[in-house]
Design a protein that fits this description.
single chain; globular; mainly alpha; 58% helix; 137 residues; Arc Repressor Mutant, subunit A
Length: 137
């Protein structure tokens, strides 16, 4: 891979939102849908979707479609990506990364059959569902 391409990939990860999205995907044992990422990061859907598009165009993430749902995961087949993701996973600790992971673990409780079935929810509705599942908000 030539230096210009590597620099572009690092530039893409240089954005705080894209870095948080990439970290969440790398740290998650499961593929994630956009709404799960939005809820975990507490960011607008537009910002998360735009970040996912850029990460995908850079060859860093892939998406698996299941009807209208798209599940994003890190693209680790490439050795360079694998090394980069290992670095992201280790490097990104503390805030806001720890809070992102805590938010994700709560949000994943709402899955049924390992799939997201909730979609986008206002924060109050999300908190109500979490309480129903016995998860502290």
């Amino acid at each position: 891979m030539e230096a210009k391409i590597k620099a572009e990939i690092l530039k893409i990860l240089g954005d705080p939102t894209r870095l948080r999205v990439a970290h969440l995907l790398v740290a998650s044992p499961k593929s994630l849908c956009v709404c799960e990422i939005v809820d975990a990061l507490k960011l607008l859907q537009y910002r998360v979707s735009k970040s996912l598009v850029m990460l995908r165009r850079a060859g860093l993430v892939d998406v698996d479609r299941n009807g209208t749902w798209g599940y994003y995961r890190p693209k680790t087949e490439d050795e360079t990506n694998h090394v980069l993701f290992d670095f992201v996973k280790e490097y990104c600790s503390g805030e806001p990364f720890d809070a992102d992971l805590a938010g994700l673990s709560k949000r994943l409780v709402l899955r049924e059959g390992e799939k997201c079935v909730v979609g986008f929810l206002p924060e109050k509705e999300l908190q109500k569902l979490l309480r129903k599942k016995g998860v502290a908000a």
